[in-house]
Specification:
The complex is a heterodimer of chains A (about 350) and B (about 260). Chain A is about 75% helix and about 0% strand. In chain A, the strands form two sheets. A two-stranded antiparallel sheet of chain A has the order 1-4. In chain A, strands 2-3 form a two-stranded antiparallel sheet. The radius of gyration of chain A is 22 Å and the shape is globular. Chain A has one domain. Chain A contains 14 helices and four strands. In chain B, helix 5 packs parallel to helix 6. Chain B is globular, with a radius of gyration of 19 Å. The two termini of chain B are about 30 Å apart. Chain B is of the alpha/beta class and about 260 residues long. In chain B, a hairpin with a 2-residue loop joins strand 1 and strand 2. In chain B, strands 6-9-10-3-11-12 form a six-stranded mixed sheet, sandwiched between helices. A four-stranded antiparallel sheet of chain B has the order 2-1-4-5, with helices on one face. A two-stranded antiparallel sheet of chain B has the order 7-8. Classes of the chains: A mainly alpha (about 350), B alpha/beta (about 260). The interface between A and B is large, with 34 and 42 residues.
């Protein structure tokens, strides 16, 4: 080949300098969408430690971890659904409550292994129903999981009559919920281990790779001969297993279970995922980011609790946080295209 | 002259009441660039989608290396060694060049663990083999590439799988002059490596530059098969717009007279 033609890199550089000012303005958004969480989380923890009375105490830190763990475990599983560009899995609300009630109620009546096995089957059923409806029938994930939440909570309330189940005052469930290693409750260690495992699944395996590529461009993935339905089913099954483990941990922490105990888990988990920097448009994100997002959301909630701001304020803050995060995500994406 | 590696005999396809293809014959030989031309709605895209297994044909026969084959899905055609580079390129914007080139066929160790180093090496070798030199890094995200670079990545992806037939759908439609040059050079290199190349294009200038033969479609039928060296652009334009059709739509038997 004689004489290399002027490469495309040259033309891009030119475009960049033409739009110099605009570009620089948008870079900030891209930076926030990409790196913001590291800075914001660090800043928030520092501010809390310095200015909020009682934040830096051992008892408070343990409490933050205890409350963060169930939501975190749900969120790292749900991250796969978000990366696959299916928005979110709202049915985690029903799944967490179901797993918690099954763990306590069935282990009271029979045994813990039986309770866990039943919860596992229920989680698989949730993952399959959601995954098949979305992946095979191409139904909208928000509507499908909203509906399965309704079905799941309906069944749970019908079977339990809305009553509260208490675990035995002593036993494996209670001791799991109370054991600590330093300031770290066991539930937090479970969260970290699951995060590492799922992070490896996302970055190192065939399946994780396909979840990302499906989320990035589902048509291209389909044309490459991938069985895309199974990618979606797999993402929803991981989300369901996360919700099951989150339910176990939640039940162990309070040693009680009731169908209404997981209210708000869907949006708290979503907040953690997108504040962490995983894009709601799919294809981009990581499980480790979700862990950081969980820390951010939990510390923010804790600061509000310590400052005497009630549940209403916390809900408003989570809502505002989601709006801000998706807006930054959206603007950064638009800026990246131009 | 080599025998055709891919041959379609009398293939038809209809969508509801619309007959998109009617008894189309099409062939391509190894080491040859075959252009596929026709007006909008002539059936070019339907023909390649049939070959790619996206919309399997209703009737007719596909022969690959002289043997009849059945193509029911994208997997079937890629197993045979047929790769299609789609007009919208079918690249995943958020993934890097390597990930895109291996999309759907990732190299794995122990059954499911991605072998990144191996994938990166193969991708780089393929790009170098095609003299694609404008990429700064194979770890670049595809969203940041120019149109010509994206096209090059899509073509490299297609040839990486020891493919025998590469079909390019409008590869230069969205490109500037210099980038079109890059892609046309790339097309010629593919044919030099003894691949069979099918190129769909509206740009007769590009076609006369790279194609050895030209198949012209009109209203879902094959109207002409030219040797590029024996015709002028005028002849091809005439064929595209007013070529004689063998079959009258709605009638089964062949017309006897011109």
């Amino acid at each position: 080949m004689a004489g290399k033609p002027p490469s495309a890199v040259d033309t891009r550089a030119q475009v960049d300098s033409d739009l110099g000012i605009e570009k620089r303005e948008f870079r900030l958004l891209e930076w926030m969408a990409d790196r913001g969480i590291f800075v914001f989380t660090t800043a928030l923890v520092l501010v809390a430690a310095l200015f909020i009375d009682g934040f830096a105490s051992l008892a408070n830190i343990t409490d933050v971890f205890n409350r963060a763990a169930p939501i975190g475990i749900v969120a790292v599983g749900m991250t796969f659904v978000v990366i696959s560009a299916n928005y979110l899995d709202l049915s985690v609300v029903a799944q967490v409550a179901t797993a918690a009630v099954v763990l306590i109620a069935v282990s009271n009546a029979s045994s813990i292994p039986a309770a866990m096995a039943l919860a596992f089957l229920i989680a698989l059923a949730y993952g399959l129903v959601n995954g098949v409806a979305v992946g095979v029938f191409k139904a909208n994930a928000v509507i499908v999981t909203l509906s399965t939440t309704f079905i799941g909570l309906g069944i749970l309330r019908w079977l339990t009559g809305g009553s509260i189940y208490f675990g035995p005052p002593e036993g494996p469930i209670r001791s799991f919920g109370t054991t600590k290693i330093g300031p770290f409750p066991l539930s937090m260690i479970v969260l970290v281990l699951i995060t590492i495992a799922l992070s490896l699944v996302l970055t190192r395996t065939n399946f994780g790779f396909l979840v990302k590529s499906y989320g990035s461009n589902r048509e291209a993935t389909r044309l490459a001969g991938v069985n895309t339905a199974w990618v979606v089913v797999g993402a929803f099954i991981l989300s369901a297993l996360g919700a099951m483990l989150g339910g176990f941990v939640l039940a162990a922490f309070s040693n009680t279970a009731v169908s209404a105990m997981s209210t708000g888990f869907d949006f708290r988990a979503l907040a953690a995922i997108i504040v962490g920097g995983t894009s709601v448009f799919g294809g981009k994100g990581s499980v480790m980011r979700t862990l950081l997002g969980v820390v951010f959301v939990s510390v923010l909630t804790n600061i509000m609790v310590l400052s005497g701001l009630g549940f209403g304020y916390q809900q408003m803050a989570i809502g505002a946080l989601i709006v801000a995060a998706v807006s930054v995500d959206s603007l950064a994406r638009k800026a990246a295209v131009t | 002259m080599a025998d055709p590696i891919l041959e379609c005999r009398g293939v038809s396809k209809h969508f509801g009441a619309v007959q998109a293809l009617y008894k189309v014959d099409f062939e391509v030989r190894p080491g040859e660039v075959m252009a596929l031309v026709g007006d909008n709605g002539a059936g070019k895209s339907t023909l390649i989608k049939g070959i790619a297994g996206i919309y399997p044909f209703d009737e007719g026969q596909i022969l690959f290396e002289g043997k009849p084959v059945k193509i029911h899905g994208p997997k079937d055609s890629s197993d045979l060694g047929i790769e299609v580079v789609y007009q919208d390129l079918a690249l995943a914007d958020n993934l890097d060049v390597v990930a895109n080139m291996f999309l759907g066929r990732e190299k794995v160790q122990n059954g499911f663990v991605i072998d990144e180093a191996n994938m990166e090496r193969t991708a780089r070798e393929t790009l170098t083999g095609l003299s694609v030199t404008t990429l700064q890094s194979v770890r670049q995200v595809v969203a940041g590439l120019s149109g010509g670079q994206r096209q090059s990545v899509a073509v490299a992806k297609a040839v990486m799988w020891n493919s025998k037939v590469v079909i390019l759908d409008e590869p230069t439609a969205a490109l500037g002059v210099a980038q079109t040059r890059q892609v046309l050079d790339l097309v010629k290199r593919l044919a030099d490596q003894d691949l069979a190349v099918v190129i769909i294009s509206h740009n007769l200038h590009d076609i006369f530059e790279v194609a050895d033969r030209i198949t012209s479609l009109r209203l879902g039928q094959t109207v002409d098969l030219f040797q590029t060296s024996e015709v002028t652009q005028q002849d091809v334009v005439h064929s595209i717009t007013a070529g004689r059709m063998k079959y009258v739509p709605g009638m089964e038997q062949e017309e006897e007279t011109a």
